[in-house]
Amino acid sequence: MGFTDAKRQVINCLNKGQYSHEARGNIDIKNLLATGDVTPEDVATILGRSRGNEYSCSPHDYDSSVDVHIVKTTHQGINWYIKWYFIEPDVVFISVHP
Questions:
Q1: What's the whole-number average pLDDT of the chain?
Q2: Cα 5 to Cα 69: distance, rounded to the nearest angstrom
Q3: What is the rounded distance in angstroms from the CA atom of residue 72 to the CA atom of residue 64?
Q4: What's the CATH code of the domain at 78?
Q5: What is the model's pTM?
Q6: Any bridge partners for residue 55, and if so which?
Q7: Is the separation of the CB atoms in 71 and 82 below 8 Å?
Q8: Concatenated DSSP letters of 10-78
Q9: How much is the pLDDT for 70?
Q10: Is the distance from CB of 91 to CB of 26 less than 8 angstroms?
Q11: Which residue segment(s) compose the domain that 17 sits in?
Q12: Which of 4, 34, 71, 88 could cross-link to 21 by cystine, CB 3.0-4.6 Å?
């Protein structure tokens, strides 16, 4: 799956409320979507404005069969780091933070 498809699918999942969060330490600073400091709409907007050169994909650390998608982008003067993977039909966020 390339950037365009990953972007379309993650935004679709956000809009439908089909998302969850991977358990992790420091969730209060590493996943602002999980803490409610940013909304799904905020994340969809940030990702919607991202470009292909801000995207990368790599295997998950714990399961190499799962692709982890990463966007590093700037939105309204803030540098964002957003990391997720898909478990059909949902998206699971690992990180959403500046």
A1: 94
A2: 11
A3: 22
A4: 3.30.2310.40
A5: 0.92
A6: 71
A7: yes
A8: HHHHHHHT-EEE---TTHHHHBHHHHTSS-HHHHHHHHHT--GGGEEEEE-SS-TTSEEEEEEEEETTE
A9: 98
A10: no
A11: 3-97
A12: 34
